[in-house]
Amino acid sequence: MKTHVEVRETAQNILNTAEALAFVDAPGNGAGALFVGVVRDLNQGRKVKGVSYDVFAPLAEQNFAEICAEASQKWGEQLRLFVVHGKGRLDVGGISIVIAAGSPHRGEAFAACRYVIEEIKSRSPVWKQEHYMDGDSEWVKGHALCGHD
């Protein structure tokens, strides 16, 4: 398994799909799957202007690596995975996360890519504050990182 996991400051680094696909490419891979998370303009009936992501990078990168290792156990050591999550402010249309999976066959690539995004959404130390067109801002309810209520 070959992986690249990273948290990038969005102000200095645009998340790049070409970089992701190049990383997961390999002579034995016949498939590459790509997930791109983008800031949308409407959430739960409220018009969104932008989003700020707060990420504790060392813990997040460790968590991303663990998730990638789990995917490799499920879909094979030949799997190549690329995960980069943005940190900072993004306007509507901005790319917040790029995930790519390369594998000899499309089924494994799609399944691994889906697994990685779903696990990141439910387990990773990433917090999102939405900024609305009416001037209000609100932290989006996420998940607890520990078992306490």
UniProtKB/TrEMBL annotation:
Any GO BP: Mo-molybdopterin cofactor biosynthetic process
Keyword terms, alphabetized: Transferase
Enzyme class: transferase
InterPro entries in the record: MoaE_sf, Mopterin_biosynth_MoaE
Family annotation (CDD domains): MoaE (cd00756)
SUPFAM superfamilies assigned: Molybdopterin synthase subunit MoaE (SSF54690)
EC number: 2.8.1.12
Gene3D superfamilies reported in the protein's UniProt record: Molybdopterin biosynthesis MoaE subunit
UniProt GO molecular function: molybdopterin synthase activity
Pfam families: MoaE
PANTHER family referenced in this protein's UniProt entry, alphabetically: MOLYBDOPTERIN SYNTHASE RELATED
Protein name: Molybdopterin synthase catalytic subunit MoaE
Organism: hydrothermal vent metagenome
Source species taxonomy: unclassified sequences, metagenomes, ecological metagenomes
